[in-house]
Each structure stands twice: as structure tokens, then as C-alpha cells.
Fold these 4 entries.
Entry 1:
Amino acid sequence: MLRARTLPLLVGLLVLGLPAAGHAAGAKRYGAEGMLLGYDEARSVFEVKITSPKVSGGFGSGGIAGKPAPGLSSGDQVEMKVVPEGSVLRRTIIKASKGGGLDNSGTKEGFERAVAAIPRDRAVVLSFEKNGKDGETEPPYVVKMVQIRMSPAEIQKRLRELGLDETESAN
């Protein structure tokens, strides 16, 4: 049974996002920018070329990806595990910087459609964690989220589809 003076401390820790005694801290999230080179569906693996070991500027990507992973450099080609199906908390999410997730089904088929929407001509934001305990499992990372940054032309197209023009979007 919790004592009356212990309860406020636990509530405070939970509000601050700090783990309470007896609860493990969440996995460390890393971020990088990279180009998708391929998707091995049979192995559930993305082949990625790192274009920047850290996430820079860009609309809608500030702080969500995580800090740079130690040891990753621009030009590195790495395999990253993906989880193509399951709950939104468990699977790899693919989304646009504006407009939400590209797959809300949680199925392999929906994931494959979302993978097909990832541009191959520019970098995307990758948010990932170590795979297994301390990244000892191959591949060493598991992708939690892929964020496709929209180009200025894609943003203007979406604004036109919504019936807005450039002057309205500036306000």
C-alpha cells in the first residue's frame, strides 16, 4: 500500500516523464536523415544510405526523431529492421511531414503501399532505436518512424487541393 506522502512523488515523476522506481526507462531514440535504397520484404529490412547522421531543420521534424546515433556517418549504408504490421505503438510508422500517416491499417499490405510512397530521390527523416539489447542483434537498428518531408511543390499542390493559395497560407 502506498503511503500518503509517496503518492505525490510518484505522480510528480509520471508528470515529468521520469521513470518511477521499479520501472525501466524507455528505449533511446536516435534520428538521422537517409535515402531508402531498398526494402527486403522477406527479412523486414530497409537498406538506407545515411545522408546526415543528425536531423537538420525542415518543417515538422524538430526534435521528434532523436539525437544522432553514435558511430553513424554520412555515406554509411546500413540495414535497419522494420515492423510492417501490428499496433501503432509497435509497428514502423511512415508519414508525411503534413497530413499524418500513410498507412493506418496496421497490415503488411498497407505498409507496402506506404513504402512505395517514400521518395527515392531525396532524404527522409528516420527515427530509430537499437535492435535488441544494446544493438547487438542484426540489423543493429529498428526503425520506429519514417517522415517524408514535403517539397515546396508538394506543399503548394496540397494547398491548391484544399482551395488555399499562397497568400492565404502566409497568414
Entry 2:
Amino acid sequence: MWVYCVIGLVLAILVIFLLGASLGTPTGTPTGADDCRVLSTRLLEDGTRLEIVADDCKEGLPHTTTSTTVRMTQSIASSPRFHEIMTHERVHLDQKTRPDYWHSLVKRIWAYDLYEKAPQGVPANVVATLRPNPDTEAAPWAVWRGRYVFFPAYGDDKRLSTAKARIWDLEEGRLTEEPPEWRAQFCFEGACPHQWEHPYEIAAEYKTHPSQCPAAAVLLAE
């Protein structure tokens, strides 16, 4: 009798194994559209760890993961824009290395307060649209002049590359456009920062491509 029990147990284990092989993937193997496998690693002269990742990682957008690590695809690392992109990403590395300094800096020179969670008054359906950004994930909600909540929001396609900057007006309780006072401070001759949903992205852009607007002038004077 016990022989039949052993045979049954072996058959059951074999069935489970075969089902797992056909329906699942081995543990630790990334799947889907956000394949962030690290293909190779380089240590740059300044100590930055550069990780080359699969093309589908964060839709191929360069980003930081820790205060010393930048990730990008091989095509970007081999492109003529590599040094320009690294200048931008090194600002994000410094922001992660010195969070207290940067929090106080953007508050002092630009009147931004940063928050880990959405401020009270932003409705749940708006909070749910937040698009995560590895470079600002510690405090993704930025409130300008105590009233305007800046954040990146997913569109219907849920893609990183097509997400838009949004502003919630805490006083009027609605989504709004950039206030004229904000444009006067952060834009020059109609040209505004490309990624204006967060002061950390604005700062990285100004450090990479200096603007003649008042906000850039005060930042670059620090």
C-alpha cells in the first residue's frame, strides 16, 4: 500500500513542477514592460555606479536608484548625449545624498515645500493618478507658495513618457494651469522647464541647460 502512496506523491510533485514551468517564470526573472535587468556595470571616475539596463526598463528613461547609482540603456550610454544626461542625473544623485539641504534650498529660493504624501485637500482620485518618478520618489508632492500642489500624473495609457505635470489649487479645490507668477519666475521668453512637475527636476534641467529666468539665476548663484 505504501508503494502506491509514494508513487502518488511523486506524481503530484511532478505535476506541480510542470505546471509551474508552463504557467510561471523562475523567481527573480523580470517580466512585463518594466524589465530592469542589470546587463553590465561601470564605475565612473567620480565614483558613480553606472548600471546598463534592458531597453524596457522605465521605458528606456535614464534615472537614479540610490545616491550613487544611475541606470540607463546601452543606446543612451553610447550616444553623444551621454555626458549631458549624466550632468542631469548627477544633480539627482546629489539630491539623494543631501536631502535636507535640497529640501531647505528649494523652500528658501523657490518657495516650494516637499511632501512624501499628498497634502490634505487633494482628493483621492487625483492622488491615484500620481506617476512614480525614481528621482523624486522620497517626496513626490511639491507645494508652491503653500497653495499650488505640483505633481506628475499618468494619462489614460499609464506610460511614463506621456505623463503630464498637473497642479492642484488647494484654495479653489480644483486642477489648474500654471499661475502667471510661477511662469514669470521659472520661464524665459515663453520657454519653461521641460519637466516642471517637481523642483528637483527643474533644478536638474537648469544645471544642465542654464536658463535666463529668475529661478535659474538664483539657483546657479548658490
Entry 3:
Amino acid sequence: MVFDERSMTPGLAELGYLRLKKRTYKASWSSTDVEHFLFFSLYGGGNYFTCDFGLRNPAAERFAVDCLRLFAGPIFQDVRFDPRFDCHMRFSLGMLAGWPSRSSLVLSKMSETALADKVKYDISNVLFPVVRSVLSAADLFSFLMRDDESSRWLRVSGAIRAAMIVYLGRRMGISTSELNAMLQSHLKDIAGSLGRAVASCSFLQEVLQHSS
């Protein structure tokens, strides 16, 4: 089967996901504080289908990208933020739903209808219980602080994630000292997304100071 995105759009629309551009959808039920996305991709000659779900607070996303550019070293100087659909907190629906081939679906083994039905079913029954209620800044803060199968730190940029947590936390009234303590256990995750020239503890301190 050759992937035809048009076969997916009616079912996704029923779930509230509207097409933004090729293989990118945004939930109409997103709130002002938390926007929800789906991102499709193909690999292996177009035979393997993957789906990531994304969550963002636009202001926190912009703050985090600014922090990366300002404090993460010269290799990040050109990082920019596109407010239309940039979303760095992306996680695998296939991993969450247990898709069989490296968290992917094999298109040559499925019909268009079967693929559309499978994706719609897993969004409704696997993804929605995890993200559908994440609609406030506090909800997103709690989600990003987690590290379970739905939200592994190692799947995303730890530096950007930590900066988002700081931004949201400060606007919730959490002190910089409390946030610093909460993020100490994730210094290794932060370091994994920084250049060698910048220590994770130094980056975190700069972000905390920038948020005040």
C-alpha cells in the first residue's frame, strides 16, 4: 500500500485533529495554554508509518528555544521558533500503543481502511487517556515532569524540556530554588542535548536566572 494521507483525515477530524500541512495536524480542542499536535512520518522506502503526538505551550516553547540559543553554546545559535507548528515535545504513539515494528506500522501488511481505523482507535483508546485532559499550564507542567512510557525524557531534548518546566513553573508561582531542586535528577538528560562546551548545571542556572 502506498500511503495516502487523504484516507486518514476524516477519522482524525472526528477526533478533532485538523490538517495544518502535510502530515501535521493540530487538535481543535487545544486550549490557549496547551496545544496538541500529531505528526506522521514514513521511512524504509515509505513502507513504515510512524505517528508522534506533541504538546506545547507556545510561550514556554519560545522561551525554551531562546534559552537554547542564548545559553547552550555556539552550535545552537541558529535555532529558531516557528509559532505555527514547531513542537519539540514529541512522543511516539506507536511506542505507547505497542506497534510491532520498531513502534511503526508496516503499510504493505495493511489496507488504507485498516491503517486509518488502527490509528483512530489507538488515538482514542491509548493516547486520549494520557493527553486529552492536559489543557492547563499546570497540567502540562505535571506531564513534563513525568518520565513514564508516555513521556520519556530520553526521547526529547532535555535542555528544552527543562527550560519549558522552568517557564511554566515560574508562572505557577514556584520559586527558582524549588525548580532547581526538582530538576537536579534530570541533569544527565539535560546534558545529553547540549554541546560539550556547556555543563548541564550551568545551563540550568542560566535558565533559572533568565526566568526571574
Entry 4:
Amino acid sequence: MANFKSAILTTGSATTVTGENAAIIPPVNVQHEDRISFQFYNPNGTVGHIDTLKVYGRLGTTSGTLGSTDEWTQIGDDVVVSGSSSALKSIATTGLNWVGVTVSGTTTFGAGHTYAMLRQA
């Protein structure tokens, strides 16, 4: 029997984020996924406009509160995207039940800050 793989691509954008560590990708159930990849784009032409993204994972069976230190653990380093650039991050999700992403910026930003998420099983 052939080994069939599947992939689900989800895209979205943030119009305005205020405050620190606001959810840009709410908790996603990944317990049946092998790998998840994220791509983030910051369209602001000002280099000093910096988005800091944090990817979190959770072993619990429910999503809980994204970013809460007693429920979620940050996966890897911060992903920093300055104006007019993008970043790509890929992680293995074996053993994880949930993944989510928060964003904070040096300023409140307008439309066009986009993300793509590829889930592979």
C-alpha cells in the first residue's frame, strides 16, 4: 500500500495588534501532524518596525491559554521580522497536541502583515 501524505495550507493576516504577545495564529490541534511550517511577512517599509513572533507548543489535551507559561512552552528562539522582510520556521510536531503563535511589535501596525502555515501529515 502506498504511503499517502497530506498537507493543509492556511493563510491569514493581522490588521492591528496592540499589546504584547497577541495571538496571530490561535491554538491549532496538531496531534495528527508530522511537521508544521510558518512563514511570516512584515510589509512595513521602515526597518525599525520589528515584529517579534513566538511559536508555542503544548502537550495538554486542551488548548488552554496561548502563551501562558504554566501551559505552553516556547519552541525555539523568537522569530524577528523587520520591515519589508519575511521569515520561515519549520518544526516537527511529533508528540505535540497544540501549536500557536503570538506577535508583538515595536509599534501598532496596519494591514498586510501576513502569515502562511503549512501542516503536513
